[in-house]
Amino acid sequence: MPGDLKEGSAAPHFSLPGDGGRTMSLGDFAGRKLVLYFYPRDDTPGCTREAIEFSAAKDQFEHADTALLGISADPVEQHEKFKRKHSLSIPLASDVNHSVLEDYGVWREKSMYGRTFMGIERSTFVIDRSGIIAKIWRNVRVEGHVSEVLAYCRAMD
Which of 48, 63, 110, 117 is deepest in the core (most CB within 10 A)? Predict the structure, then answer.
């Protein structure tokens, strides 16, 4: 069932438009570990901090043979502006139709100040070299998260 993913499940395939005019798919990362992180919105405080921290740690993830990909529902043009503004080095993909967000179970009802709405639950998935979800973090708090994900990826081998 889409959205009912658990550690040990096969990662749902995706193909999304990304920054730089690229199409990004799960198959692009075959044979490598992949950190797939979902975030609510470009250029908001928590999302900016998370993207900057993943960018700063990109080389360390590369040493752990791990690729990074951020996904939100923002359009590609907004991703491009977000990357330029904050000098982000990580690829970002756009899921404006929410299909991948729903497949990974991160498009959820949220509430804030007594109002409910649909939005992205900040979540991170680590996918192993064979396409299996090795680890899921849901409802992520940004503080210390990138370090925790990096430590996990290093310990996988």
Answer: 48
Name residues of the chain where pLDDT drops below 70. Answer: 1-3
| DSSP type of residue 22 | -
37 burial (CB, 10 Å; 0-12 / 13-18 / 19+) is buried
Q: DSSP 3-state helix, strand, coil percentages of the chain (rounded to 5)?
A: 35, 30, 35
Six-digit token pair at 108? 């959820």
Q: Tokens for 102, please give them.
A: 């729903």
Cβ within 8 Å of residue 98, ≥6 positions away:
73, 107
**What confidence tens digit (pLDDT) does each residue in 97-133 have?**
999 999 999 999 988 899 999 999 999 999 999 999 9
Residue 153 is among the residues annotated as catalytic for this protein: no
Selected catalytic residue, list 47, 51, 100, 101? 47
DSSP annotation of 129: T
- In a 13 Å sphere around the CA of 114, the CA atoms on its Cβ side amount to 0
Nearest to 71 by CA among 33, 110, 125, 112: 125
Q: Facing residues of 16 across strands? A: 24
pTM: 0.94
Phi-psi region of 96 (alpha: psi -120 to 50; beta: other; left: phi over 0): alpha
